[in-house]
Amino acid sequence: MEEMRPITDWLPITKREVEKRGWEQLDVIIVSGDAYVDHPSFGSAVIGRMIESQGYKVGIIPQPNWRDDLRDFKKFGEPRLFFGVTSGCMDPMVNHYTAGKRKRSTDAYSPGGKAGFRPDYATTVYTRILKEMYPDVPVIIGGIEASLRRVTHYDYWKDQLMPSILVDSEADLLVYGMGEQPLFEILRLLDKGVPISSMKNIPQTSYLQHQDDKLLKNKHWQDVLIDSHERCLKDKKSFAANFKVIEQESNKVNARRILQKAKEKLVVINPPYPPMLEDEIDASFDLPYTREPHPKYKKRGSIPAYEMIKFSINIHRGCFGGCSFCTISAHQGKFIASRSQESIMKEVDAVTSMPGFKGYISDIGGPSANMYRMKGKVQSICDRCVAPSCIHPVVCSNLDTSHKPLTKLYQKVDEHPKVKKAFVGSGIRYDLLVDSYNKNGDESMGEYMDQLVSRHVCGRLKVAPEHTSENTLKLMRKPAFKHFHEFKKKYEESNKKFGLNQPLIPYFISSHPGSQEEDMANLAAETKDMGFKLEQVQDFTPTPMTVATVIYYTGLHPYTLRPVFTAKSPKEKKNQHKFFFWHKKEYREQIRQSLNKMGRDDLVEKLLSDARKQVKFERVKNRRKNQSKGNKPWNRNIPKKRK
């Protein structure tokens, strides 16, 4: 019988749990849009455990009810130091709505997967409530929503530009990116009695001050003033030009302080901390997590996001891909912070001891699974770099892309006596594994491929070529599709070597800026030729702080200020998306009409010539299946025609 943990193993989420610890007042209260899962993949647990590790009393208010008498916000009273607010692991608008702006019926971060337990724009809603109830208590916001909305940004769901989230939420301070480093300093200063209004020199934070107030000088930082929020509202080109500065400063070693005027306020964004050192990131993952949801959720059903990752291990943070549609580098940065092998193996021990573990680790990965320990060979070159990507348009000659440390890590995990298989569930960067693209490659690429294929693929391997069009891929900051052909060949050869047949599952995006309807038709034809019936497909969703979103809103590329076509209307988007499904009967006629209109009779033949045969084959197969079950075939009772 499973032994019950004491409730004090979790951070407290009720008044009774606080009293059980003998505490009268909490030092910090975290308000979160997610259910409380005490696991290193959930931000509020990481921050809570980090604050606890410094000797402070911390509690969490998960998914408070914002529509009743607000009793959830009152249950702990005032914290001694501050309220910390996060909307959760996802931007709540992405969590709540599809790319077509339809409301989702589920929420992966809520018990039972039920929707409706957090508001739209949760960070702003929670913060306003707290500021009204406790006007003298500092409120610090963080997490993905706050991080990506720290400057003027385009909001797809309102279809308008919005100012920094600091303006609308009225929070005292914003921590962007992965928040451990700035929070250590904030805690130290608040505990010494320094008012939060004086905390203007902490890296990786942002705050508001009146435009007329004197700006605090910092001899180590240079300043850059970008166009004001009001200017961006009047001129889309100004908004686009701003983004180039923002993205470059977010990914520099020695970044400038960004200043932007908005509604008589000045938004000040301090440069980020350097990437975490190995012992720093290890310390974050080595905290005493229970690795389980709080017991209060047991009767409300499992939390889908937790079920998906509970037997997984994150080995690094950051991504140097710089994809135009992705927010990872804007939040985690482009420089890789890798954990030590010792810390990872300690977590392997913890995972293999969890209830229900049957010998299979679902993922050993990160934002991109195969960037572990990759970094610049000469740091001084990285210190001068302003490029948002280290591997586009080419792999940087200063980037060490050796897969040897990762292969050794996989082998070490495989040696663990309780591990039957450790899978790589995260997507891998296939372009780092082909000679035609990765000119820095060495023999470790082949060793990694063989190790991956022979031991770590769970039936199918996820990769993300995203498109086939050369022009669209350039806008995406992804390699030409010919390199994917090479990877597929190499992957299949490795499978053959080990007597395996593990299909590739490629991910693609429709309606991305730069993608035309004809590009999607070509994509469908080329992937069909390669033997794919596409499953992992999505319509482009504009999210704050990406190049692609800026193009979507302005029609201009922020680095060139030249026009770029983007499918925006529901009809245009639908016309692109349908080509993914050439093999489905309900799309055949629409695709035929579109191809005829384009004058692409060659693609009509290529995509649809065998579609009728396929439908007939499926019909016969289903009929035989029904007969084998003892069911009457559809024509059993039709009288035979007389001679």
How would you sum up this structure in a few lines?
The protein is α/β, with parallel strands linked by helices and 643 residues long. The chain contains 25 helices and 24 strands. The termini are far apart.
Structure write-up:
With about 650 residues, the protein is α/β, with parallel strands linked by helices. Among the domains are: about 5-205, Rossmann fold (3-Layer(aba) Sandwich); about 335-460, no CATH class. The chain is built from 25 helices and 24 strands. A nine-stranded mixed sheet has the order 3-1-4-5-8-9-12-11-10, with helices on both faces. α2 (about 45-55) packs across α8.
Look at the helices and sheets and give the structural class. alpha/beta
Percent helix, as a range, is 25-40%
The first-level CATH class of the domain at 7-207 is given as: Alpha Beta
Number of helices: 25
* Amino- and carboxy-terminal Cα gap: 74 Å
The CATH topology of the domain at 7-207 is given as Rossmann fold
Write down how many β-strands occur, each being a DSSP E stretch of 2 or more residues: 24
Superfamily at the CATH H level of the domain at 7-207?
Response regulator
In terms of DSSP E residues, the strand content is 5-15%
Shape type: globular
